[in-house]
Amino acid sequence: MTLRQTTRRRRRPEVAEQEILDAATLLFSRHVSHEVSVSEVMRHTTLSRKSFYVYFKDRHDLLTRLVEPIRAESDAMVEMLRDTRRGDPAAAGRACLRAHARLYLDHGPLLRALASASAQDHDAKAAWDTFVDPVVAALTELIQEETSEGRSRGLDPEPTARALVGMNIQYFLDQIVDKHHTDIDALADVLLTVWVRTLYG
Fold first, then answer.
1. CA distance 85 to 137
2. Which pLDDT value is given to residue 5?
3. What is the pLDDT of residue 102?
4. CA gap 143, 54 in Å, rounded
């Protein structure tokens, strides 16, 4: 079953663009990423295939745009990590982890699809990296600062940050996506314990 209707109608550009994004979100959440082509996306809209290129340059641009609103939410959460310089690191870390857990609660199927596809699908990897890399960068900065201040020692900041973020992602995907009853606070507290013991011993 597709979203295509029997007749096409003129609509505002932002409405047509959103229809394409909605169809792509649905398909990427339900299918193997490399099977989702521009043609397949447009087949699930009421628009012609050539309409795609009015709003998007290519498939890569489409995936990037799908991630943009999620990335914006994530970027706001990343600022919580940077706020550790002005407050309680544990409280800031817990708030960041809870917020990211809610992000997976809201956008889990699409994030899971991109994470899974990133190993084989170049476009999916590029989109996934724009979501993950800012979190890794912020945590790297935190570890560097904690090390320079003498509160943490013996850690290579960037690889450690990437390992912790990778752990978060896998845990969120396993414990949140498609789960009907998820205790967000409990999940965040488990991850925070690992973070604290890793960073501070």
1. 15
2. 46
3. 93
4. 44
**CA distances from residue 125 to 26, 44, 101, 115, 174 in whole angstroms, order as listed:** 18, 23, 21, 8, 20
* Contact yes or no for 139/195 (Cβ under 8 A): no
Give the position of tokens 């990437």. Answer: 162
> Which tokens sit at 80?
């919580």
Q: Which letter does DSSP use for residue 150 in this model?
A: T
- String of b and e for 165-175 (b: at least 16 CB within 10 Å)? beebbebbbeb
Contact 101, 187 (CB under 8 A): yes
Flag residues of the chain having pLDDT under 50. 1, 3-7
What is d(CA 95, CA 178) in angstroms, rounded to the nearest whole number? 23
CB 192 within 8 A of CB 90: yes
Q: Return the ∠ at Cα 134 (arms to 133 and 136), rounded to 5°.
A: 65
pLDDT of res. 82: 72
What b/e sequence results for 27-52 when a residue is b if at least 16 CB atoms lie within 10 Å of its CB, and e otherwise?
bbbeeebeebebeebbebbbbeeebb
Cα atoms found within 13 Å of the Cα of residue 71, Cβ hemisphere only: 16
